[in-house]
């Protein structure tokens, strides 16, 4: 979250171009001509040591010769000159540079490193190098070598490819779509995708953000920025390399299933980003999101003069998860009165091939007023009977009047004029009606709107809490893993795995490790005494897939059978894998559950996003069936349910014929426990439970593999180093004693605390609420509280305090970092009837300790002057208190850490 000085780069008041060439065919000359053609309104200077003027514009020899300090320096000079130019600009006080030049290299001693060092010395921001440039229509700046300048609009485009950005500009010019900004980031020497997501998320001129991504450099930073942006506006991404294979062969089934693109897909889903498959679909998103708001539901009414195309639209709508709208009785009666008797009488509303403009208008007016639909798609197939141009003009006029009457929110109207002339496209686009070449594109555009609304709802859902009875023995689990690593082993043995699962309350079949044949017989006899059948498996750290060497024998019922099977397994393994270290055999009780489903659950390691949770159909043919879904941890029960629901096998978990449904949430609970284990023990590299048997009684792990190794820190900041999404920081839970031996329990706020917050606010007076929120607060909506409780621990923290005796919430304190994670702004609220007992002081000390642990340099806050108690406490805690020069009723308080 580093929006520091980005506004200076993207909305500069002054610009200097360094490196423009006199040669007509050159990048520098193209950038100069584009800046000139766009008619940048601010100060502009040209720097070139060899030419006094270029293209009629006077040039100076270096930046020091300019008579103003440019906020933005655009560099098209040779790579070797770039670090020196940045240093010179920094000395003059320039905010940042756009480096169009390529060839800076990478690694120690490179021009890339020198440029970064020069920028950091002066706090400059850098975009590029090796990029197309930036195009900011709002300030008439085209600092790029693109062929065209986009018009002003409300879409932002962030692209790792200059060619993709140039293509978007050309497409937008034809469709009348405008942009709030287009930024190509090139090699991301400093400013990256996450920084720009944060910038455009806060930009009131931007309605939606489009991304073209090839690879993510900092996964945790990206996830934080994307999740924050997706809460406030649609974020759409197209990513190349969907068919790329993983870089290494995986040793476990979960590792094999977690392909690189599947992990990106899981990351985008967790962030609330809408993923599209190609540029055409990205264009459709731009067409839709740039013109209309999301509907309140997914019921689409279709108005058409061709029955066939209407049916095709319905087919695509249902396939993508939309709902063909019904027509209310009142609307049907009006349509009967306005249309010929041959109209379809249902949705799609087919008004027959000879329909003219007046018939379209009559039907559209009825559908706009009908509350049984959430949006309308108008289709037109051109005929020789009625003018398609006249129909388009009538539709746009009617939609315009409807929007005038419903300014706060208007029902979306979309259009597809098949084979339309450019003048029809321009008419529809000019009226702000999203329009598409085919009915398929139009339906996809509608579903993008629907998906965004669903994403916002999902991001603000209150997840169910895990049962209070689940308290893992993380310490014992760490000891098991640490012992294996200290022994130089990469894999846990079966008995260790069983004990590891037990520490997280995950059931596994009885399992014993036998070093020889006779010990295997002895363990088997114990299991026979319990009425169990036995299975033997080869035990070797070098043989990962046991069935590959015939290392599994099932259904053993006598000691003699066990002795023979053990002898045979060991002999066969030594023959087929003579280099393998054979430790013996695993003896397990066979679990026979005729109606159980075989599932696979596990953890895999991704080089970009760290730990990934995998779920799917289990068994020996797991890779062939390839029925799996992935999610980024941490998980709650709702996220685990969503993960399960994305697989085909999820349907088998329900009851069918004589097979009872799997015990509710039994599988989801195991997924949550696995995700928690990954947070607690980052030394777990891969984890594979296959199969996990699930039925109406619960779940049981039959076989599992666990790969371990020294923890490798992947992401900056605290929290699990292997998680791209920062997990719940349980290490900050505290039990504290206050005045009068009042005992409280303090922990980080969780999303499921929303009902607790609502109840707590009933015990806070209107006066205290006004002191906290600086305005009277009559109502607290779900959306408002969700924004408070759905924390991104990588950016913010809130501690919630409970009375240990009553269990009631008594206070909350929160801290939100600034864009460069150097300072945080605090806020605190206590139950009004419990003030004066030291709770406020304790919570403030805790949030100060937390800020120090995060490496923040200061804590600040705004306090009303009338809030004398808070101001006095701040002074005692060491805060500096100053009046706010812009707000006479407010004091700024600041504590240096």
TrEMBL record:
Q: Which InterPro entries match?
A: Acyl-CoA_Synth/Transferase, Acyl_CoA_acyltransferase, ATP_grasp_subdomain_1, CoA-bd, GNAT_dom, Ligase_CoA_dom, NAD(P)-bd_dom_sf, Succ_CoA_lig_flav_dom
Checking CDD domains in the record gives: NAT_SF
Q: Which GO-annotated molecular functions does the record name?
A: ligase activity
Q: Which SUPFAM superfamilies match?
A: Acyl-CoA N-acyltransferases (Nat), Glutathione synthetase ATP-binding domain-like, NAD(P)-binding Rossmann-fold domains, Succinyl-CoA synthetase domains
| Domain of life per record | Bacteria
Per its UniProt record, what SMART domains does this chain match? CoA_binding
**Protein's UniProt keywords contain Transmembrane:** no
Q: Which PROSITE patterns match?
A: GNAT (PS51186)
Domain N-acetyltransferase positions: 744-897
Q: Which UniProt keywords apply?
A: ATP-binding, Ligase, Nucleotide-binding, Tricarboxylic acid cycle
Q: Which Pfam families does this chain map to?
A: Acetyltransf_3, ATP-grasp_5, CoA_binding_2, Ligase_CoA_2, Succ_CoA_lig
Checking Gene3D superfamilies in the record gives: 3.40.630.30, ATP-grasp fold, A domain, ATP-grasp fold, B domain, NAD(P)-binding Rossmann-like Domain, Succinyl-CoA synthetase domains
Q: What is this protein called?
A: Bifunctional acetate--CoA ligase family protein/GNAT family N-acetyltransferase
Organism of origin is Bradyrhizobium xenonodulans
